[in-house]
Specification:
With 135 residues, the protein is mainly alpha-helical. 33% of the residues lie in helices and 6% in strands. 1% of the residues are buried.
């Protein structure tokens, strides 16, 4: 359930979600969502934020999850270009990780405190991901 909450709110850092009920990490759920045939095209046209709001609604209605946001003092980071220039590569089917789905939402791998690898993002989506990670 914790991962679903992270996805719904775009919050990936473990120390940014506080006060979860014990059952969030103790119980497992299979969440199966269906989209009516007439709504499939509309659903496919939703952006990440719209899909997140749908997940938030599901968590509120089905699991009675309540949330609030608060500001806390935290460290900040600067995104800088590495020596030798940026190491960006265009996503292609040739460099897809095993199990990846072309056209699916971007995938982020964290390789430690100073390494981030992202796949299948447009630069605009990646900037939005970084912004939401820092909010």
């Amino acid at each position: 359930m914790h991962k679903l909450i992270q996805e719904a709110y775009g919050v990936w850092e473990e120390d940014r979600i506080l006060g979860e009920p014990d059952w969030v990490n103790a119980l497992n759920f299979d969440v199966e969502a269906k989209v009516d045939d007439v709504d499939v095209q509309r659903y496919q046209g939703l952006n990440v934020e719209q899909r997140r709001r749908m997940l938030q609604t599901l968590l509120t209605e089905r699991f009675h999850l309540t949330t609030h946001r608060e500001n806390r003092e935290r460290s900040i980071y600067a995104l800088i270009i590495a020596k030798g220039g940026p190491h960006l590569q265009e996503s292609t089917t040739a460099n897809m990780r095993p199990g990846a789905v072309q056209g699916a939402f971007g995938h982020v791998l964290r390789g430690g405190p100073s390494t981030l690898s992202a796949e299948w993002f447009t630069m605009s989506e990646f900037a939005q991901y970084l912004k939401s990670s820092l909010d």
